Amino acid sequence: MKEMIYLDNAATTLRKPECVRKAVYEAMGTLGNYGRGGHGITLETSRKIYEAREAIAGFFGFGNPSGVAFTCNATEALNTVIRGIFDPGEHVVTTALEHNSVLRPLYEMEKTGVLVTVLPADEKGNISYEEMEQAIGDKTRAVVCTHASNVTGNMLDIERIGKLCRRKGVLFVLDASQTAGSVPIQMEKCGIDVLCFTGHKGLMGPQGTGGICVREGVEIRPLKAGGSGIHSFEREHPGIMPGRLEAGTLNGHGIVGLLSAVEYVKQAGVENIGAYERKLARAFYEGVREIPGVKVYGDFEKKERAAIVALNMGEYDSAQVSDELSCTYEIYVRSGAHCAPLMHQAMGTQEQGAVRFSFSWFNTMEEVEQTVRALRELAAE
């Protein structure tokens, strides 16, 4: 029986550091409910949650731990921000690289009178920064965009976008789902006003964790209202961060696991992790790009990119290729549209989808070589 090869890390990292698994296991038997009560267990839980806020604030070069609000994932974070900062008549600029966790909330806001401009991408998945600048006008409230495409791995120049937003006086909201943990992100240096992240991908934390880092002075309307542990007699949800965006019981067990994951990533080094993952992705790309019938998507002339390679084999549906890799070789990848419809329109793969290979810190070069051999065998057949 072949050993399984997991290359679907852009969806979720399967292999987690041992310290993360241990932290979650121990938290299941020791953690109380954050902010609910004054006894020792609750106070210790509150200390751990604040420690996680401090770690994440430091990790993203953000000086305000109280501006870190926890969510279930990046989708909840992005919905909270997008539904919470725009008023009817205001304008937002986004890109064709976006995941549906950005696009669908924006389409919903469009129904309320928010004006949405989507910058197109070329066949390689690149946008024009000149077009972005031209799109920003007097009514523009924010630029909302991903750091890296979850289909092609192409990265946007967030320092350039941050400078543009500062110059134009608009907010910069970043979706860091595909880069947090493998690409250094410094909010203050890059001019990022709001950063949305998930814990279960490059940060190698538990599923059900994520958050929003909000610069002081940026007001976001709460997506939810309910229990907060404070001001219980008020009819409106408290407006003080981070509780403003954290109605109900937090996923304390997951957050403690996320804290352990962030500490692990910091110790291993974000630069080291990213360089290793990109090395694997580059080796895979070099191994498959000349296989007859294989078409690779994205811009590989740029070294700075997420560790993602998407391809198709001839006219075969991407699901057929993925199923063959799974059933015959026990290589697990992702096929289909990847919740990024505009990217597929740009690539011309609306019907075929794409087979995505995404690499993590726990993959090996041997796994890359085995996967390349498998694709060569499939192409030969």
TrEMBL record:
Where on the tree of life does the source sit, at the highest rank? Bacteria
Chain ranges passing through the membrane: none
- Which molecular function GO terms apply here? transaminase activity
Q: Which cofactor does it need?
A: pyridoxal 5'-phosphate
Which Pfam families did the record assign? Answer: Aminotran_5
Under InterPro entries, the record lists: Aminotrans_V_dom, Aminotrans_V_PyrdxlP_BS, Cys_dSase-rel_unknwn_funct, Cysteine_dSase, PyrdxlP-dep_Trfase, PyrdxlP-dep_Trfase_major, PyrdxlP-dep_Trfase_small
Q: What is its EC number?
A: 2.8.1.7
Q: Which catalysed reactions does the entry list for this protein?
A: (sulfur carrier)-H + L-cysteine = (sulfur carrier)-SH + L-alanine
Keyword annotations from UniProtKB, A to Z: Aminotransferase, Pyridoxal phosphate, Transferase
Q: Where is the Aminotransferase class V domain positioned along the sequence?
A: 5-370
The record, for PANTHER family, names: CYSTEINE DESULFURASE, ISOPENICILLIN N EPIMERASE
Please give the family membership noted in the entry.
Belongs to the class-V pyridoxal-phosphate-dependent aminotransferase family. Csd subfamily.
Q: Known NCBIfam families for this protein? A: am_tr_V_EF2568
Please state what the protein is called.
cysteine desulfurase
- Source organism of this protein record: Blautia hominis
